[in-house]
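Supplementary Methods. Inverse-folding protocol.

Structures were first reduced to a discrete structure-token string of length 107. This string, shown here, constituted the complete conditioning input.
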């Protein structure tokens, strides 16, 4: 995921492109040709859609983009910015990492 985030947010690469995704996978140590072949196939399409529908139902997703933080906190990005800031402040009250821990919100 780090490679995908870096490619999109830092390098402005098109992560909707099979070539770009295969290149990112190769940079992460995966075989580029195997990744490209998988992405261009229909393998796992039905299972992926089924999983997405189940998650949408579980979290009552009603629009996109839709954010889930720590499998607990859910909101749509189209809500007003001040509400996002409010949520982030509330989340920071519940869990303040130490300098040694860094920014790890998995716990």
């Amino acid at each position: 995921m780090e490679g995908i985030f870096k490619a999109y947010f830092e390098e402005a690469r098109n992560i909707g492109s099979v070539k770009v995704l295969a290149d990112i996978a190769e940079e992460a140590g995966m075989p580029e040709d195997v990744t490209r072949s998988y992405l261009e196939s229909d393998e796992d399409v039905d299972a992926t859609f089924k999983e997405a529908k189940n998650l949408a139902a579980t979290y009552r997703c009603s629009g996109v983009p839709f954010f889930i933080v720590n499998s607990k906190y859910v909101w749509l990005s189209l809500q007003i910015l001040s509400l996002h800031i409010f949520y982030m402040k509330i989340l920071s009250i519940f869990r303040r990492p130490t300098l040694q821990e860094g920014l790890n919100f998995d716990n």
